[in-house]
Amino acid sequence: MIGLKRYFLVIGLVAWLSMFMAEAAPDLFVSEFSLTPETPVQGSPVTVRLGVYNKGTAPSGPFSVQWWPGENYRDLGCSWDLEGLVARGGRILTCTYDGYPSWYSNINTKVVVDSSGSVAESDEANNIFLKPISVSKPDSGFPGPVGPGPTLGSPDLFVSEFSLTPETPVQ
Questions:
Q1: pLDDT tens digits, one per residue of 39-71
Q2: pTM for this predicted structure
Q3: In the chain, N or C: fewer CB atoms in 10 Å?
Q4: Is there a contact between 77 and 131 (Cβ–Cβ < 8 Å)?
Q5: How far is C-alpha 85 from the chain's CA centre?
Protein backbone atom coordinates (compact mmCIF):
# COMPACT_ATOMS: atom_id res chain seq x y z
CA MET A 1 0.00 0.00 0.00
CA ILE A 2 2.88 2.40 0.79
CA GLY A 3 4.38 1.75 -2.68
CA LEU A 4 1.05 2.64 -4.30
CA LYS A 5 0.84 5.91 -2.32
CA ARG A 6 4.39 6.83 -3.40
CA TYR A 7 3.48 6.05 -7.01
CA PHE A 8 0.48 8.39 -6.91
CA LEU A 9 2.54 11.03 -5.06
CA VAL A 10 5.20 10.94 -7.80
CA ILE A 11 2.56 11.04 -10.56
CA GLY A 12 0.84 13.99 -8.87
CA LEU A 13 4.15 15.83 -8.45
CA VAL A 14 5.04 15.31 -12.13
CA ALA A 15 1.60 16.58 -13.20
CA TRP A 16 1.90 19.62 -10.94
CA LEU A 17 5.39 20.45 -12.19
CA SER A 18 4.42 20.07 -15.83
CA MET A 19 1.42 22.31 -15.27
CA PHE A 20 3.25 25.12 -13.47
CA MET A 21 6.70 24.84 -14.97
CA ALA A 22 5.49 24.93 -18.57
CA GLU A 23 7.24 27.58 -20.61
CA ALA A 24 5.19 30.74 -20.97
CA ALA A 25 4.57 31.76 -24.58
CA PRO A 26 2.34 34.14 -26.53
CA ASP A 27 -0.44 32.85 -28.80
CA LEU A 28 -1.68 35.36 -31.36
CA PHE A 29 -4.93 34.96 -33.32
CA VAL A 30 -7.74 36.93 -34.99
CA SER A 31 -10.47 37.35 -32.38
CA GLU A 32 -12.99 39.23 -34.54
CA PHE A 33 -13.45 40.41 -38.12
CA SER A 34 -16.00 42.56 -39.94
CA LEU A 35 -16.46 44.54 -43.13
CA THR A 36 -18.62 47.62 -43.58
CA PRO A 37 -20.74 47.28 -45.56
CA GLU A 38 -21.10 43.62 -44.60
CA THR A 39 -21.52 42.75 -48.29
CA PRO A 40 -19.11 45.01 -50.18
CA VAL A 41 -20.14 46.56 -53.49
CA GLN A 42 -17.80 46.35 -56.47
CA GLY A 43 -15.79 49.58 -56.81
CA SER A 44 -16.95 51.09 -53.48
CA PRO A 45 -14.76 51.63 -50.38
CA VAL A 46 -14.89 49.00 -47.62
CA THR A 47 -14.02 49.53 -43.95
CA VAL A 48 -12.11 46.58 -42.50
CA ARG A 49 -12.18 46.00 -38.72
CA LEU A 50 -10.37 43.17 -37.01
CA GLY A 51 -9.34 42.21 -33.52
CA VAL A 52 -5.97 40.64 -32.76
CA TYR A 53 -5.62 38.90 -29.40
CA ASN A 54 -2.81 37.23 -27.45
CA LYS A 55 -4.39 34.35 -25.53
CA GLY A 56 -0.96 33.15 -24.45
CA THR A 57 0.70 33.39 -21.04
CA ALA A 58 3.53 35.74 -22.09
CA PRO A 59 3.72 39.05 -23.95
CA SER A 60 4.59 38.98 -27.63
CA GLY A 61 7.30 40.96 -29.33
CA PRO A 62 6.65 43.13 -32.39
CA PHE A 63 4.73 41.56 -35.28
CA SER A 64 2.78 42.42 -38.43
CA VAL A 65 -0.83 41.78 -39.39
CA GLN A 66 -1.84 41.60 -43.05
CA TRP A 67 -5.27 41.51 -44.72
CA TRP A 68 -5.97 40.39 -48.27
CA PRO A 69 -9.34 41.16 -49.91
CA GLY A 70 -9.20 37.63 -51.38
CA GLU A 71 -7.06 34.72 -50.25
CA ASN A 72 -5.52 34.43 -53.73
CA TYR A 73 -4.99 38.17 -54.24
CA ARG A 74 -1.38 39.09 -54.95
CA ASP A 75 -1.62 42.59 -53.43
CA LEU A 76 -2.41 43.36 -49.79
CA GLY A 77 -5.52 45.30 -48.88
CA CYS A 78 -4.18 46.57 -45.52
CA SER A 79 -1.17 46.01 -43.27
CA TRP A 80 -0.34 46.96 -39.67
CA ASP A 81 2.91 46.81 -37.64
CA LEU A 82 2.34 46.29 -33.91
CA GLU A 83 4.86 46.77 -31.10
CA GLY A 84 3.49 43.67 -29.38
CA LEU A 85 0.62 42.55 -27.14
CA VAL A 86 0.57 41.78 -23.44
CA ALA A 87 -0.51 38.30 -22.35
CA ARG A 88 -4.32 38.02 -22.61
CA GLY A 89 -4.50 41.42 -24.32
CA GLY A 90 -5.64 42.58 -27.72
CA ARG A 91 -6.04 45.42 -30.19
CA ILE A 92 -8.66 46.53 -32.69
CA LEU A 93 -7.26 47.43 -36.11
CA THR A 94 -9.11 49.29 -38.87
CA CYS A 95 -8.45 50.48 -42.40
CA THR A 96 -10.34 51.52 -45.50
CA TYR A 97 -9.88 49.48 -48.65
CA ASP A 98 -10.46 51.31 -51.96
CA GLY A 99 -12.85 48.65 -53.18
CA TYR A 100 -13.08 45.30 -54.91
CA PRO A 101 -12.32 45.55 -58.65
CA SER A 102 -14.93 42.91 -59.47
CA TRP A 103 -18.05 41.35 -58.01
CA TYR A 104 -17.85 37.82 -56.53
CA SER A 105 -20.63 35.45 -55.57
CA ASN A 106 -18.18 33.83 -53.14
CA ILE A 107 -14.61 34.75 -52.16
CA ASN A 108 -12.52 34.11 -49.04
CA THR A 109 -11.03 37.18 -47.41
CA LYS A 110 -7.82 36.44 -45.48
CA VAL A 111 -6.02 37.79 -42.39
CA VAL A 112 -2.56 36.62 -41.29
CA VAL A 113 -1.29 37.48 -37.80
CA ASP A 114 2.49 37.48 -37.34
CA SER A 115 2.87 37.14 -41.10
CA SER A 116 6.68 37.16 -40.94
CA GLY A 117 6.81 34.52 -38.17
CA SER A 118 8.79 36.80 -35.85
CA VAL A 119 6.98 35.69 -32.65
CA ALA A 120 7.61 32.20 -31.23
CA GLU A 121 4.11 31.11 -30.19
CA SER A 122 2.59 28.19 -28.33
CA ASP A 123 0.24 27.62 -31.30
CA GLU A 124 1.41 28.74 -34.76
CA ALA A 125 -1.52 26.99 -36.49
CA ASN A 126 -4.13 29.64 -35.59
CA ASN A 127 -2.45 32.64 -37.26
CA ILE A 128 -4.47 32.48 -40.51
CA PHE A 129 -8.12 33.57 -40.57
CA LEU A 130 -10.35 33.01 -43.62
CA LYS A 131 -13.91 34.27 -43.99
CA PRO A 132 -16.19 33.62 -46.97
CA ILE A 133 -17.90 36.76 -48.26
CA SER A 134 -19.62 37.94 -51.42
CA VAL A 135 -19.14 41.19 -53.31
CA SER A 136 -22.24 42.53 -55.05
CA LYS A 137 -22.48 44.22 -58.41
CA PRO A 138 -23.12 47.97 -58.33
CA ASP A 139 -26.77 49.00 -58.76
CA SER A 140 -27.65 48.88 -62.42
CA GLY A 141 -30.96 50.71 -62.24
CA PHE A 142 -32.29 53.34 -64.61
CA PRO A 143 -30.20 56.49 -64.65
CA GLY A 144 -31.78 59.75 -63.66
CA PRO A 145 -34.49 60.76 -61.23
CA VAL A 146 -36.70 57.69 -61.79
CA GLY A 147 -34.06 55.08 -60.92
CA PRO A 148 -31.83 54.38 -57.93
CA GLY A 149 -29.08 56.59 -59.36
CA PRO A 150 -26.03 56.28 -61.54
CA THR A 151 -23.58 53.43 -61.32
CA LEU A 152 -19.83 53.93 -61.18
CA GLY A 153 -18.40 54.81 -64.56
CA SER A 154 -21.83 55.23 -66.21
CA PRO A 155 -23.21 58.48 -67.66
CA ASP A 156 -26.09 60.07 -65.82
CA LEU A 157 -28.43 61.02 -68.68
CA PHE A 158 -32.13 61.73 -68.37
CA VAL A 159 -34.84 63.75 -70.11
CA SER A 160 -35.03 67.12 -68.42
CA GLU A 161 -37.57 68.78 -70.74
CA PHE A 162 -40.11 67.74 -73.32
CA SER A 163 -42.36 69.90 -75.51
CA LEU A 164 -44.46 69.65 -78.68
CA THR A 165 -45.19 72.36 -81.21
CA PRO A 166 -48.08 72.74 -81.66
CA GLU A 167 -49.09 71.54 -78.20
CA THR A 168 -51.83 69.40 -79.68
CA PRO A 169 -50.59 67.80 -82.87
CA VAL A 170 -52.90 67.91 -85.93
CA GLN A 171 -53.20 65.01 -88.29
A1: 999 999 999 999 999 999 999 999 999 999 999
A2: 0.70
A3: C
A4: no
A5: 19
